[in-house]
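Objective 1.3, modelling of assemblies. Example input:
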Amino acid sequence: MLAQQLVNGVLLGATYALFALGFTLMFGVLRVINLTYGFYFTAGAFLSLLLTARFGLSIALALPLAAIGAGVIAVVIDWALLTRLRRKQAPELASLMVTLGGVLALYSAMTAWLGPDIRRLPPGLISADAIVLWGLRVTAAQFLILGATSVLVAALLVLLRGTRLGLALRAMAERPDAAGLMGINTGRAAALVSFMSGTLAGAGGVLIGLNFNAIQPFMGESMMLRGFVVIIVGGLGDVRGALIAGLALGIIEVLTAGYVSSNLKEAVAFMILVAVLWTRPQGLFGRSVVRRA
Amino acid sequence: MTIPPWLDDFLWTYGNLINALGVNGLLALSMYVVLSVGQLSLGQAAFMGLGAYSSALMTLQLKLPFFVVLPASCLLPVAFALAIGIPTLRLSGVYLAIATIGLGEVLRAVYLNLDMVGGALGLNGIPEKAQTWMIFSLLIVAVAGLWLVARSRIGRAMEAMREDTTAAAVMGINVGRYQLGALVTSAVLAGIAGCLSAHQSSFIGPNEYGFEPAVTILSFALLGGIGTPIAPVIGAWILTLLPEMLRGFSDLRLVFNGLIIVGAVLFLPRGLIGWRMRRRGA
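Predicted structure (tokens):
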């Protein structure tokens, strides 16, 4: 029973980690808390619904296409909302407010257009059977989650750690103006980071939509709460921290729901957030925060 | 006191709208206080919800008189403001913003699942004890009080912090204390606004204090501007009256509020009412 809960927790946590990874990447490189991020999650889920229900694609095709679509949406929104502020080097709270206004407009426009109802993916999209391994049930959707998150996380780590592009992005995270002076095209790199983050969020949206089979415009907003918890507990901008904290949050949520009450999962997640802020604000795995003047 | 019949008709038709103007004015002020020290809290709706739920329970369960309930309604919001503000204000501004958005989401989930506060149905039959004159007297007191503060030495310190926190700290302003003071004041204002709105609409529900109202309250202050305390109130009034006049567009009201924030930050950083406080020697 406990082992089963742990398996479910790890798989849920994998999607949280995937989602938070894009969020923390965006903050790490672009220095913006981009609250439209949750919308890319919603967008990924709705695109997968459109591709499977309207065009009859299989999930193996719909998942990457929806994720890429969300990435493109992310680039457009980032360009529309943040280019001007980036040029003016506006304070970080100004960008936070713009993305907040933007995301409310996006969610509400989507609700006005499509309605607030919960939608479901076409039945039979993914096999409902579970495979039993050593007494543990793992559904096909969960296998897909495991496969897709592993591939995406590995690809991101290879890109950041092993390529010239990754070096350029890490240089931008360290010092954007110096990176620009060293010949890095910061505008193009910003667009690329938006695309990668949007793709991660979009993939997260498809996988969560598949796992719970409930797709609804504001789903990205409740996911953002998990995103906040994970990136603060893991340390803002810390990729490794986001992975570990995401997995841990998934396990904690499943255990809370299993052994205490499913009504308390959000409250527990938030209490962890506040406790970390009180005791280790740099995040569990972060170096101590240096305040820049 | 007798009320002339035309006024009675008017109040009967527009009473709720008039009260909403007062309550939203208080909420706009609660946003203004935080913005005016250069911080961003998105917990205004959450603080309001805490005030509304705690005051409704005090009235319904404990049967306390309204003159006790009203001031007591800010206790819970202040406790939450301290629990979140003390750790986050030591850090950069994004932490307070993130933690307060999270607070709103979490409290909504808590109200939905807690039987004591009615779950998804909310709380019904709260006696309508908040009179229009009370709401507006409190609004006037709040505007006047904040006006006096803004004109004083404290107001200058607040403005200095908003322009450049580091420089203000170097000048000897105790930045952390002002920021926490501002957050607590805003929690008091939002808690009282919550109590007043709960005791004039007789019903409160879990979805009234989530993400959308939090952003709407920010749009009040950004539309009006934060140069003086009267500006955010005017912003709130415009955004409260506008949907009444454009009823056909009620679906798009939130789209509009969101776009106002985008437009205000990008193109109108001082808000509609851009003039600033005039001070002696300034």
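Residues 234 and 244 of chain A are 7 Å apart (CA to CA).
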